[in-house]
């Protein structure tokens, strides 16, 4: 059984030893790896080396959003480039410093079955691998760091919850990763089944499934949530809480009432505004300048549960659906972890939603994607933002679909025109809305790829006065 181990601190001689090679990758080694993973997660660490738990053997674990990595007898095959960034260490609490490392490394070593593996890495993973491998030679980051600074050491007793997580797309990943590195025990991940997608109808794997596999989390993909077997499986895990982030289907009450502290849901809007399937897109379509996330109790009525906490964020004119989703996913992860801390401490206060302020955010239907040039330019620019990078707003040109992914107002163009009229001024493509001109920047002709409007114009010249429109 994996258990949480004590992390030894700077000053302990074991941290200064050159660690021994592991001769045999056996059950003892695997159990130590499991305990190192548990210890790293509970301590909110990115990596851990065996000497840090008092075992002078060449073993490391590292966990980043990309996945969970374990190496027995790791060796640097090659390193390239260099990068300076801030580092800390679980064995050197209260200090951080700037350390220069290779920007890319290739590492080889043995996996938990004793098989040789290779890993190319960059970014945080690359840095963490080098930091942990240093530990195996008795080297600490403070030996290499410049500008060492003091940081606050978190105090107070931490409480960890047993969490069942239900989610499906990319939007759920920051939440799942944050809950994991907060040290909560994720005892089950529930995600939607694989489904055929794209032109070749190849099976597409939900982002949450890929994450769960990369981080070795227990996973299930039930076709049906109303199954006695699933209810029994969850009950046996004795979870404290069920966390739902964009699962994609209503979760029945026989499941939500199983956890001791109930079930909570992250919704990307400031409820009671924008209940429903497309809150991010609808906020942009409506030209809102502020939105946010809500953590609520799961209720049988969609998005109607009592509010645990909310955080707001500005919507900038540069935001589109893609960028705003990413921001809300990160903000939501923060809000969820705060809510879990409150639940663990028994400090939750619930605020019922004001039913008089409810607005709805229905899903985007194919007819919503068609640009209506008789509308004002602000509405049209907002629609393009709300549907970018997917599925894309479109217009018809010469019987073919022309999708527009990025578009700007053109207040400097003052000539008259009819709604839907095309013009080019130099290299610039212009289309007339009811109240002025707009300039598409990124477009995609039917059957083609995304391109700049300049490139599009080279292959598809415009007759000034030509109309695009609704058929
Ligand atoms: Zn360290």
Radius of gyration: 27 Å
Q: What characteristic shape results from the CA principal axes?
A: globular
- As for the number of domains, it is 3
- Major sheet attributes: 7 strands, mixed
Helical fraction equals 10-25%
Bound molecules: zinc ion
CATH topology of the largest domain: Rossmann fold
User: Helices and strands: which structural class?
Assistant: alpha+beta
Would you identify the CATH architecture of the largest domain? 3-Layer(aba) Sandwich
Number of strands: 23
What order do the helices and strands come in, and which of them pair?
Blueprint: H1 27-42, E1 47-49, E2 59-64, E3 67-80, E4 83-87, E5 95-101, E6 104-110, E7 116-122, H2 123-136, H3 141-144, E8 146-150, E9 162-167, H4 173-181, E10 185-190, E11 195-197, E12 202-204, H5 207-214, E13 219-220, H6 228-237, E14 241-245, H7 253-256, E15 263-267, H8 279-285, E16 290-297, E17 307-314, H9 321-345, H10 377-386, E18 393-397, E19 400-409, E20 422-425, E21 428-432, E22 437-445, E23 451-452, H11 453-459
Parallel strand pairs: 9-10, 9-14, 10-13, 14-15
Antiparallel strand pairs: 1-2, 2-3, 3-6, 4-5, 5-8, 6-7, 11-12, 15-16, 16-17, 18-19, 19-22, 20-21, 21-22, 22-23
Bound molecules: zinc ion (ZN).
Keywords, separated by commas or semicolons:
471 residues; alpha+beta; Peptide Deformylase; Rossmann fold; Methionyl-tRNA Fmet Formyltransferase, Chain A, domain 2; 7-stranded mixed β-sheet; 6-stranded antiparallel β-sheet; 11 helices; 23 strands; 24% helix; binds zinc ion
Q: How does this model look, in words?
A:
- The structure is a single chain.
- With 471 residues, this protein is α+β, with helices and mostly antiparallel strands.
- It has 3 domains: 13-150, Peptide Deformylase (Alpha-Beta Complex), CATH 3.90.45; 162-357, Formyl transferase, N-terminal domain (Rossmann fold, 3-Layer(aba) Sandwich), CATH 3.40.50; 366-459, Formyl transferase, C-terminal domain (Methionyl-tRNA Fmet Formyltransferase, Chain A, domain 2, Roll).
- Helices cover 24% and strands 29% of the residues.
- It has 11 helices and 23 strands.
- It has helices at 27-42, 123-136, 141-144, 173-181, 207-214, 228-237, 253-256, 279-285, 321-345, 377-386, 453-459; strands at 47-49, 59-64, 67-80, 83-87, 95-101, 104-110, 116-122, 146-150, 162-167, 185-190, 195-197, 202-204, 219-220, 241-245, 263-267, 290-297, 307-314, 393-397, 400-409, 422-425, 428-432, 437-445, 451-452.
- A 7-stranded mixed sheet has the order 13-10-9-14-15-16-17. Strands 18, 19, 20, 21, 22 and 23 form a 6-stranded antiparallel sheet that branches.
- A hairpin with a 4-residue loop joins strand 21 (428-432) and strand 22 (437-445).
- The longest helix is centred in the last third of the chain and has 25 residues, at 321-345.
- It is globular, with a radius of gyration of 27 Å.
- Zinc ion (ZN) is lined by residues 89-91, 131, 135.
